[in-house]
Amino acid sequence: MGLGGISIWQLLIILAIVVLLFGTKKLKGMGGDLGSALKGFKDSMQGDDDAKNIEKKEQEDADTAQQHTEKKDESKL
Question: Distance between terminal CA atoms of the chain?
């Protein structure tokens, strides 16, 4: 028993029909397109995380700079 009541033989027959209909070159191209789309999605999700990390680091740097400025002002008094 395979997926959802479909046996291995039925899956092989479906695969053979798909290969006959589309051909291996077109299937390879579709697979490449799907892979690049998934990679782009993953990169964009990673980019959102990177943007948040950069924003957090910039805020920390600004806070540190402000603390240094405050210490300089206190030392002048």
Answer: 83
